[in-house]
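Worked problem 6 (solution included).
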Amino acid sequence: MAIPIITLTTDLGDKDYYVPSAKGYILSKLPAANITDITHQIKPFRLDDASFVLKGCFEDFPPGTIHIVSVDTSSGNTTRFLAIKAKGHYFLCHDNGIASLVVEDHEIEGVVEIAFKNEDLIFPLKHILAPAAIKIFETGGISDIGNPVTNFVRKANMRPLIEETFIRGTVIYIDNLGNAITNIDKASFDRFSKGRKYRINFSRLDYFDKISIHYNEVPEGEKVCLFGSNGLLEIAINKGSCTNLLGLKIDHSILIEFL
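Solution. The predicted structure is:
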């Protein structure tokens, strides 16, 4: 029998008993389960951060992996929970829009509303989402978990504004090293740059006129701009934090001008 792989992404942190309690529940039912922590350090209620992290890694797991996401339980329809099959993976989450930030509508193969009892709402990670993960493994799909739905909450990913002479994007994520990651992707940059020179403006006085390949192309403590492993443009300080030294934060505007 295949070993069930279940990932956990939450904003619950590592201080309290919530996450290990949910893990213990799963292991009591599926002792062979491989439970992988994606992260429990999502800032409370930050759906954008959670979707960015999960989107960046879920396809590295084998098809059939079950991804439990418990973040921002106070937004969207908090009394509704979804089981979604998309791109060969399963996602279990609150109906708060997180799913639409991780996968596109055309990638979704099916969505059902998870059935549960009202008393389960006091600890949905353990009493609603974890049992749904177990049932998916036992039955091989989501059809036995609840009724199909199409009207779940959707949120739009923030996309850059692209014109012939410029691309305007924003910082969408700050990683643990203090690197500012934008929503400007390499494919769009390559398609619209057409070999032209450019300036990447991130402040009134400072800009880049070169995109590097590695962080260490500049001396330690110097700023660098490159496309990261996820294909998104990021601004960093080699061996430093651009949030501290450059003042870059979430929603900071980034303008690429083609000359």
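Discussion: Residues 26 and 130 are 6 Å apart (CA to CA).
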